[in-house]
Amino acid sequence: MSTYGIDLGTTYSCIARLDSNGNPEVIRNNEDDSNTVASVVFFENENNVVVGQAAKENIETDGDRVVQFVKREIGKPDTRTYEFDGKTYTPVEISALILTRLKNLVESQGGEITDVVITVPAYFGLEERSATKQAGELAGFNVLSLINEPTAAALSYCARQFQEDRTILVYDLGGGTFDVTVVKMSMTQNDSGKDVQKINVLATGGDDRLGGKDWDDKLFEHILHACCDETGLTPEEVEAETRQDIRSKVEEAKRKLSKKQSAKVRIDVNGSRIEIVITRADFEKMTSDKVAQTMNFVESTLQKVPDAVIDTVLLVGGSTYMPMIKNAVEAKFPGKVQQHDPDQAVAKGAAIYASMLVVEEGTNSGTPSDKKIDGEISGGVEHAEQLTAKFTVEDQTPRSFGPGVMDTKANKPRYVLENFIKIGEKMPAVFTKTYYPLENNQERVRLRAFENMSTEDTLIPCVDEDGNPQATDPAHNVKLLGELIVNLPPDTSRDTPIEVTFKVDASGVHVEAVNTKTKEVFETFLRTGSDIDVEKSAVHQLRISAD
Ligand code: ADP
Ligand code: MG
Fold first, then answer.
1. Which of 69, 322, 340, 343 best tests ligand 1's pocket when mutated (most atoms within 8 Å of CB)?
2. Which of 73, 140, 262, 304 is the most buried (most CB within 10 A)?
3. What's the predicted TM-score (pTM) here?
């Protein structure tokens, strides 16, 4: 049985495996005549749910029964839900429907599929990651592991062109998101003294609201106005069917403009047929601000790693097919730009990684469901073995984590966040520190746990008096994960050491506290969003140092 790599994208998803020669190949979506599947779900009626291009064709006419961009919602604290025909769907369930469509794609072509690696953006926190994994399991997969999208892209690039130490900037412009990542590939020795290539994420940046859709929207507006000019209608007078017609043709026209200098679009405007010609030059003019926006993000991401010297720039994401993108990136990084199947590179890298995991058999976090390797792809596995000799993908913590505690030694007692585990640390990461109750006879501690993007040891102040994470520096992105309740027996003195441990691995954050006097262990962590009313006051807290 093959292992598969899945790029579960915001707008398009893609699935790949290694072929009999060990080369990654994408499973074609014959129904839509494409290498990808639109991540769009249309709830036509209670008996029919459609995923893919056919679902996309209902956005303008039946928009309230269409779900798209669900990746933006997955694992978010205030989980929104969707209701259709009396059934409620969570983002995890919607994502599982998209994954099921990919599964059916493989099965309809005679393939068998259980073990998969799913890709996630490098900036995804652990909640988003575990929700993605959950979606995979709901679709019936054994999720061997998750891998960062830029890492997968780099893996797919290096599999075709192996090079030693390199710093790669991955420019990923998809349909709804723009991600810039600086990854470093370096030679290192593994535990058994073997030379291995390590891929580390050095910096991430971008915008989760910037992508090909913005280019579509500009073109949509342009065509709509051209239709209005021809007919004398106002945009409001244009019927929903006409809008859908434009919407359906916009993306096709955009793709045409990637290949040709002009594209012709025919639209039935409220009954009369209109023909509009758009030139590539016009299209580039109306979207030049968007290109500039992406280049600003490239700049600000580079500023996070001032010492990095970029050797290669990888263009990833379907939107990089647009010549204007390649031109802009080339202008900044002359001679360094590489582009290979940008809409498939992530899935292919995930397929390579999935095969590496099967070869390693359990040395990584996942356990392949079927360790016997099918002869059909043995070539692939041998190839993967060669790859394994070269690569190890080090999992790193995607955020910093730590508890909120009282600093009583400051002039005025203040609430601070102590970062136990910092962003970029090797996973699994563990850190323990001893704290003390705030007062004698304190009944309990409600220990708040946070994630953030800072690399500081301490963030002051990290929350406001209501216990809400405070945006002292929005870049720190402080987020309350939940709290751990530590009940203290009567007569507990304020000198009782309470040992707090944070452990972060690919499956999430584990918080534990031990009352070292009673040896009692507390580990029931209540997550925000799951009905908990997080302690708002500073009363039931721990303090940093013994007096
Ligand atoms: P995701 O955003 O889900 O990661 P992709 O990387 O596949 O998805 O990017 C999808 C975007 O790429 C869409 O906006 C799509 O219109 C665009 N795209 C795909 N092919 C082309 C092309 N040939 N020319 C221009 N844009 C394209
Ligand atoms: Mg993508």
1. 343
2. 73
3. 0.82
